[in-house]
Amino acid sequence: MYICICKGVTDTAIREAVCKGADRMRDLKVCLGVSEQCGVCAAHAQEVLETALMQKAAPQQF
Ligand code: FES
């Protein structure tokens, strides 16, 4: 599913970025361009980021 329409970033791309070490919105902005233009995606991207970080920390619970 697309999270950032402006940059064509999907939830999968965000999860992959988290696997590679991204752990803040700033990281997603730098590596994927999330929230770089209109900013509408910021809240949803943050949600996906937090979920991915939780899954990374405790993968057996999901
Ligand atoms: S939807 Fe992400 S910057 Fe516009």
Report on the structure:
Helix content is 53%, strand content 8%. By secondary structure, the protein is mostly helical. It has a single domain, classed as Orthogonal Bundle (Arc Repressor Mutant, subunit A), CATH 1.10.10.1100. A two-stranded antiparallel ribbon has the order 1-2. A hairpin with a 4-residue loop joins strand 1 (2-4) and strand 2. Helix 1 packs across helix 3. It starts with a strand and ends in a 5-residue tail after the last helix. It binds FE2/S2 (inorganic) cluster.
How does the overall form come out from the CA principal axes? Answer: globular
Low-confidence spans: pLDDT under 50, at least 5 residues?
none
Domain count, please report it.
Answer: 1
Mean pLDDT: 95
- CATH topology label: Arc Repressor Mutant, subunit A
Instruction: Give the SSE string.
Output: EEHHH
Largest sheet: number of strands, sense, barrel closure: 2 strands, antiparallel
How are the strands of the biggest sheet laid out side by side? 1-2
Overall CATH class: Mainly Alpha
Distance between the termini: 19 Å
CATH superfamily: BFD-like [2Fe-2S]-binding domain
Instruction: Assess the beta-strand content as a share of residues.
Output: 5-15%
**The CATH architecture:** Orthogonal Bundle
Estimated structural class: mainly alpha
Give the total of beta strands. 2
* Backbone CA Rg: 11 Å
The set of bound ligands, ions and cofactors reads:
FE2/S2 (inorganic) cluster
Total of DSSP H or I helical runs spanning 4+ residues: 3
Which percent range fits the helix content? 40-55%
